[in-house]
Amino acid sequence: MAHETDFIDLYRKLRLEPGCTLDDFKQAYRRHVALWHPDRRRGSRADTLAAARLQRLTVQYAAAMDFHRRHGRLPGAPIGARSAGPRVEAERDEASTATPLRASMPPSARPRAHMAMRWWLAGAVLGIGALALWMWPDDEPVETESVAEPVAMVEHDRPAARFIALGMTPADVAAIEGEPTRRGADRWEYGPSWVRFEGGAVTDWYSSPLRNLRTASTRAH
């Protein structure tokens, strides 16, 4: 499964480089799953799109972890590079111990060991999928981010006919859209949507169907 997976697409989604640590990789995955939480969806089409993307991300993540277990590094990392953390050392020790054991197995026992490993990998993939489904609530969406309450408060005070436009200041954007989920020096993020500033003025934006911005178009003209 790993050799057929588009790991470049996976790193792009997680905004990581192939040389990142295992802890950074896992944290980025968890953030991305939370980003596509159902409380961010609006409408049946966005609901279907989010579910499909989350399913593809889960499969790509499982393939990357399978690659890490077999090679001791994440896909795309330099050969010989080690992921930070004691867990990697433990996995390397297990691999060094397992190698002589496998070599000592009689030929008749090796196919059974290989089949057991395949079942173990299948169970790991199913476990990750079950975790994603467990995080998907059946009832009303529940806000999970600390910035959700201020955004909701600003929502009531938004002008009914006001939209984000080129040249606006960060204060104007905050008055219309509320506090961002992530604030950078030149870019504010609202989930999968974002607004870019240059010289203290709006120069570009992207309004995702998963979290619409109050703009007249999906992208700035």
UniProtKB/TrEMBL annotation:
The lineage of its organism: Bacteria, Pseudomonadati, Pseudomonadota, Gammaproteobacteria, Lysobacterales. This is J domain-containing protein. The chain crosses the membrane at residues 119-136. It comes from the Bacteria. Residues 75-108 are annotated as: Disordered. Keywords: Chaperone, Membrane, Transmembrane, Transmembrane helix. Residues 9-69 form the J domain. InterPro entries: DnaJ_domain, J_dom_sf. It comes from Luteibacter flocculans.
